[in-house]
Design goal:
alpha+beta, seven-stranded mixed β-sheet
């Protein structure tokens, strides 16, 4: 199988949408809720969350990466410099562990029908490679460590085992929760 991961540039927007919002629902998250404040979404999109996300794709650091298997878009990772992810940069629940200008993974989505097929490993490696190519000293994520299967509605935060397999290690804890489980701070050092 051929795997590729690319930044979410405007020409790849429909591939991203096929993964996260196949039916193009207007009120869908569009992977903005945990990235930007409501006011920023409104300013960028003029009332359209889709348009706000399209505008983010035009920036120097697009808002993430799309992974393809044999040319089909199968995974999405919302990643960028923590300082550019307003909701995270200002979070009182997920505070930085140090002053390192890390890149942060906000969410991970595998396209329906492609789960449990190894997509996540390729997706996370592609996200780390993207961050490294832009000089990121480290990449962080804030997953949970569920005792069993994860509640699908909160699965976007990822699991400890998923990030363990991708070479991340636990470097701290947060005051945030997902599905009533504490979220960890996991880091992969790129220095």
């Amino acid at each position: 199988m051929g795997w590729e991961t690319h930044p979410l540039t405007p020409d790849r927007f429909d591939d991203f949408a096929d993964i996260v919002n196949r039916n193009r629902r207007d009120n869908h998250c569009w992977c903005l809720s945990h990235r930007l404040r409501a006011r920023e979404i409104e300013e960028l999109g003029g009332g359209s969350r889709e348009q706000a996300m399209r505008r983010l794709c035009e920036r120097d650091h697009p808002p993430g990466v799309v992974t393809y298997r044999d040319g089909m878009p199968v995974g999405w990772c919302n990643i960028g410099p923590r300082a550019e992810i307003t909701r995270l940069a200002n979070s009182r629940l997920i505070r930085p562990v140090d002053d390192l200008p890390v890149w942060s993974i906000v969410c991970v989505v595998v396209r329906s029908g492609h789960r449990r097929q190894g997509v996540t490993g390729h997706l996370l490696q592609g996200a780390v490679d993207y961050a490294a190519s832009h000089g990121a000293p480290a990449v962080e994520a804030h997953p949970v460590d569920p005792p069993g299967r994860m509640d699908v509605t909160m699965a976007f935060v990822g699991t400890k085992s998923m990030f363990d397999a991708a070479g991340f290690t636990v470097v701290g804890s947060t005051d945030a929760v997902a599905s009533r489980m504490p979220r960890l701070i996991m880091r992969r050092d790129l220095r």
